[in-house]
Fold this sequence. Notes:
Blueprint: H1 3-12, H2 23-31, E1 40-45, H3 50-63, E2 68-71, E3 83-85, E4 88-89, H4 92-106, H5 115-130, E5 134-138, E6 155-158, H6 166-169, H7 173-180, E7 190-192, H8 197-209, E8 214-216, H9 232-246, H10 266-275, E9 283-286, E10 289-291, H11 297-311, E11 316-320, H12 328-335, E12 339-345, H13 355-364, E13 369-372, H14 375-383, E14 389-392, H15 395-406
Parallel strand pairs: 1-5, 1-6, 2-5, 6-7, 7-8, 10-14, 11-12, 11-14, 12-13
Antiparallel strand pairs: 2-3, 3-4, 9-10
Helix pairs in contact: 1-4, 2-5, 3-9, 3-10, 4-5, 7-8, 11-12
Amino acid sequence: MTYKAALAWLYSLQRFGIKLGLENIRRLIGELDLDLRNARVIHVAGTNGKGSVCAMIDSICRAGKYRTGLFISPHLVTFRERIRVNGEMISEKDVAAGLTNIRELVRDWDPHPTFFEITTALALKHFAKARIDIAILETGLGGRLDATNAVQADVSVITPIAFDHEKWLGDSIEKIASEKAGIIKARTPVVCAPQPGEVEKIIRARAIECDAALQFVDQPYIKSPIALRGEFQKLNAAIAIGAVQALKLDCLDQSSSRDARIKIDDSVIARGLATVEWPARFQCWDKRTVIDGAHNPAAAKLLAETWCEIFTNERATVILSVLSDKDLRGICDALAPIADSFLLPEIRTERAVDPLELQKTLTGLGLKSETFASFGEALANARKRQAPILITGSLHFAGEALSHLQNKPAAFEECAQ
Length: 417
């Protein structure tokens, strides 16, 4: 298959929906003969901050000359963002070849593997071929039954847990925490962000059950600058550093290591954090335009706090689009204190809330808004105003916005025939 045909097949699997479970991914790992035994694995779960922490771990390890494999989701502009070796996205050729092989392998499977299961398998196969030193795996959804949990980790990381994905993870913070804590494995060190009391209790219980050393990181990193904006990123940085230190890289078998490897000390950490890149996380596109993928109330609250840090009392023209399974009122309420006005475009995904429905939510909160037929129209209107512009509400929307600003095809157009 060509790259476009391979992606068209992969996206067609979304008809199978989300199926949490490890049977298919374990079978895939076995039949693809995936061998990551010479690599260390850091597994990251949580509600907010997962991507930033993964990016920081990757950047620190690469600054130490370790060969890394980074697996994240979702992607913003191109599917290839999900799978990277040493910062380089997987090539179109490798995507096409890998998916062609997997398609043939699973042709007659029942149940058929899902989009995420196959994407996870593709990433692991790519990492194995690249002979990486360290794999950084971000969960897609939850943890316990997430496809990434089929891999034995050397360090488990849990970022702040809050309400999100209740349809799949449960309708209480305790149920959600239990799913996230499912990445904790026997005698595997755990690095954890500060959590609400009921969440901390569940994580501690799981760690005791697994005889896993548990470290809570509650002090932000302040020794050197971090390329990602926002005070909260200092805590994410401390969590990333804790994860790398828990990996005990000094104990790696040096006979099989690359001569270029160096000890990860303060200077390496500083270099990694100063050069980390992570789009759509308070990304300043220009002096008056910010893109942020905040997609739940907790993330929107952090976004509002960061806006106040950067723009003080200046309110934003907020271009907002939210997916239909999210807490619309909670997100809008969190953004209200920094908003001068809301512009609501129709975007190109069926998962997005209709702008008129979103407008009703804002009206119910006493907030004014206008609807637009496209992101381009909303952006043009925002640029006529004096207020700085904030584009937010969803990582999918952030991806569409970046595609528009970069004059590139949107992610879903990659597989258009």
